[in-house]
Amino acid sequence: MLIQYKKDYEKIAMGLLSYLPDFKNIENLREEIELNQNESDFILYLYRNEQDNMVGVLGTQLSNQFIIVRYLSLAPGFREISYEREIINELKHEYPDKRITAVPEYTNLLKTVEEDNGQK
């Protein structure tokens, strides 16, 4: 289940973000959290699995017609394509009127979901 970030989840979000190379530096990590708190078109989601554990973080950016996946980070042990598919499908459900796209590093996420939905 995707849950929109709020201050209560800061430590969890920072921990999950720290798995990404761009956020190994604490200053970059803090700047990213602040960006998602202060800019309305940058939205951070946490992903809660069936066991009620927060195991992923998804960074997005909204525009008029699109929602852009900026990054996705999953905890070790949860880095399976099934989790990635679930997260992207939930994002589609959250924004049915927007087209989902991604920064180049994450376009593979979209291809997998399109193949699942028969949209090759």
What is the strand and helix layout of this fold?
Blueprint (H helix, E strand, L loop, with lengths): L1 E3 L5 H8 L8 H13 L3 E7 L5 E9 L3 E9 L6 H14 L4 E4 L4 H10 L4
Parallel strand pairs: 4-5
Antiparallel strand pairs: 1-2, 2-3, 3-4
Structural class given helices, strands, pairing?
alpha+beta
| Spatial sequence of strands, sheet with the most strands | 1-2-3-4-5
Shape category: globular
How big is the Rg?
14 Å
What's the end-to-end separation, in Å? 26 Å
- Nearest-integer average pLDDT: 90
Reading off the top of the CATH hierarchy, the class is best stated as Alpha Beta
Largest sheet: 5 strands, mixed
Q: Can you tell me about this structure?
A:
- It is built from four helices and five strands.
- It is of the alpha+beta class.
- The protein has a single domain (2-116), classed as Aminopeptidase.
- α3 links the parallel β4 (66-74) and β5.
- The longest helix is centred in the last third of the chain and has 14 residues, at 81-94.
- It is globular.
